Amino acid sequence: MFPTLKTGAVMQYPAKRTLQFNTGIIRFLDGTEQRYRDSPSVLHTWTIQLDLLDEEELAALDQFFVTNQGKFGSFSFTDPWDGTVYPDCSLSADSFSFQLQEEMRGRTTLTVRENRT
Amino acid sequence: MIWFPQLSSGATGQFPIQRTRLARTVVNQSAEDYEVKLADPGAAITEWHLSFQELSDQELAALEALFQAVEGSLTPFTFLDPADNLLAWSEAQNQAAWQADPLLTLTGGLADPLGGTGAYQVSNPTSATLTLQQSISAPLSLDYCLSLYACSSQSTRVWLVRGSQSDARTISPQWTRLTSAGTLTGSGDTISFGIALDPGTTLDIFGMQAEAQTTASPYKKTAETGGVYSNARFRDDTLTITTVGPGRHSCELDVINVEHL
């Protein structure tokens, strides 16, 4: 499970969600085109920007990254917009960075990506 | 052992501190977005960007001495992460990283003060003092702070062990965060942190944390690795120092830990 903040929330504003289809297009000489689905369904991506975190919250996110070995691991993620549980998601990057400006002033960004199953 | 120096305040870093972890995953991606992934844990890199302001002459001299001793990025040194718990398996005292004296009993999975189930009950049924400790490869001579949450309805005292120093702390039926901090005398390349229980003592513990600083910061859970990096290096071969007045220096530097080097 993706770690929650002390407030119980997963994300903060501004929160970004991306829906990704994969459409193949064949263009013909006369300008017409034929389109087809190149993958069976939409894929979701959530960009989680977090600010004003304390060290405990940052440590939980850091451990989550380490446990998942970057984008290798799989976990379930609950979409905070509608509560839908996506059972097979991964972090989208092999890097995790945070900055501690001062006490209780941590900042980081993570991107979660739904895997094709 | 060569190690990254502490400032005169006892801290290893100043705010802001930035830490980046890099992993490596080999991904075979199909045209339909299906993926086969392979982890490469040996390629993990941890990087810190440290900014220092208002360093004194002595603090700067210590940094410069380290930079010269390791010849820039050439050779490694020990770096104690200023943003992490130095102890591994902070919520798994049954792991091999922890050395429990024989006959000390440990029961895990108990409710902890942060709402989880990471607490342990520790009991000493013998007539001798028993300890639960973890040793880390770090210089004995630095400032350290050991902290943990403890409670007990049966016992009133626990000893916090920090190297050769043991400090008695009072415990109550409510969860209380106990700390023991200071500088130890002597030299050595390993230091142990833990607790010692008087005969017949039973208490609950949670969130054991050691830090290379003089006070405790918020608890940070760790798993198989703590914040001790024995293979750290300067990322760059240059160290730029800005002096704005007598005894007022500043510099920025990057430290990396790469296990496969």
Largest sheet descriptor of chain A: 6 strands, antiparallel
Low confidence ranges of chain B: none
Count the helices of chain B. How many?
Answer: 1
What is the CATH level 1 assignment of the largest domain in chain B? Mainly Beta
Describe this structure as you would to a colleague.
The complex is a heterodimer of chains A (117) and B (261). In chain A, a hairpin with a 6-residue loop joins strand 5 (75-78) and strand 6. Chain A has one helix spanning 55-68, and strands spanning 16-20, 23-27, 33-37, 43-53, 75-78, 85-91, 95-100, 106-114. Chain A has 117 residues and is mainly β. Chain A has one domain (16-114). In chain A, strands 1, 4, 5, 6, 7 and 8 form a six-stranded antiparallel β-sheet that branches. Chain A has one helix and eight strands, in the order E-E-E-E-H-E-E-E-E. Helix content of chain A is 12%, strand content 44%. Chain B has two domains: 17-83 and 228-258, no CATH class; 99-211, Sandwich (Jelly Rolls), CATH 2.60.120.260. Chain B contains one helix and 18 strands. In chain B, the strands form four sheets. In chain B, strands 1, 4, 5, 16, 17 and 18 form a six-stranded antiparallel β-sheet that branches. A five-stranded antiparallel β-sheet of chain B has the order 6-9-14-11-12, with no helix packed on it. The longest helix of chain B is centred in the N-terminal third of the chain and has 13 residues, at 57-69. The model of chain B has no long low-confidence stretch (mean pLDDT 94). The chains are: A mainly beta (117), B mainly beta (261). Chains A and B meet through helix 1 and strand 7 of A and strand 1 and strand 3 of B.
